[in-house]
Amino acid sequence: xxxxxRQAICAAGAALxxxxxAPYVARANIxxxxxxxxxxxxRAIELVxxxxxxxxxxxxxxxxxxxxxxxxxxxxxxxxxRASGINAIHHAVGLGGPNAKEQALSFFAIWxxxxxxxxxxxxxxxxxADILRAKKDGKVAVIMGLQNxxxxxxxxxxxxxYEIGQRCAQLTYNSQNRIGSGSTERVDGGVSDFGxxxxxxxxxxxxLVDVSHSGDRTTLDAIEISPKPIAITHSxxxxxxxxxxxxxxxxIKALAAKGGVMGITGVRNFVSKxxxxxxxxxxxxxxxxxxxxGIDHVGVGTDSDLYGYDDTSPEMNKMLRGAYKDxxxxxxxIDVDGFDHPLKMFDLTExxxxxxxxxxxxxxxxxxxxxRLLTATWGG
Length: 380
Fold this sequence. Notes:
This protein is an alpha/beta fold.
């Protein structure tokens, strides 16, 4: 029987929104999207369906052209978001410089309008209850954030941006700012006096503190200074790969001791130094955090949109690579093999099952741990 494109899209959404029909239960593997030949086990599909899946760094689209956000999602993008199993994404980019505040105001206006324009797929986030509501309604909740806090000219700006809708702020983005040092700075002076005031203001309003791109000392300072747990939304483990953008065991232990959570990123040069770099290498970082501090302090922060960096145009890929220092050490590919497509959460779940993670622990990694942290930060 032949199906129209629209019928195929509807079928994809139904496959995730409704319980599996009896004829599918007997099959070893189940295809859940008409746009791919990927198939997954019944158990993996059921776990993703049960989970509140939170990707704590996932821009809606890796596209430097602002006109993208003036348009509606394509039919394929709509179907891919619905089939992805992802319930919430942290949409954030790195901004900085003398006009960072103006840039941030513009970006939040553009993003907010884009989410409203595509309300059949997306919804905004105030409290964690909005993410739970999005899951119930079959939508993707968009957590608004920025990967730099350079737009906070004074502590009072934190409340202003919170009221606009920002729910997470990274203190630094690789380089030095008034708050602290980035991961690729030659010298890390730690969190400044001004940074202490910004962290205090973020705690007061309920904005999540993130140190993913911060230097080693700035990371440790922020964890110590913040009375509330903070996050490393997207980084990996330096014990497995020596790279300035990933975190030391000391930092991971300090984060966990304060109740924080670390999201593991799928950027290839932060995962492994040798090829092939696959989902197996990615989950090695989850394993390391679990062995080091326990299951309660690790989650997912892919640092990618649904399709990955290697799916961008050659011009955009070149522009992106050129924005970073040589110490980033990009290779030919940026994405992790097998973790570079809309159904990546199902591949992650299959690998966790292969490693004998329990259902409860898989649910924690997919989003339960970030649910606990975000609820404590924002309220239920």
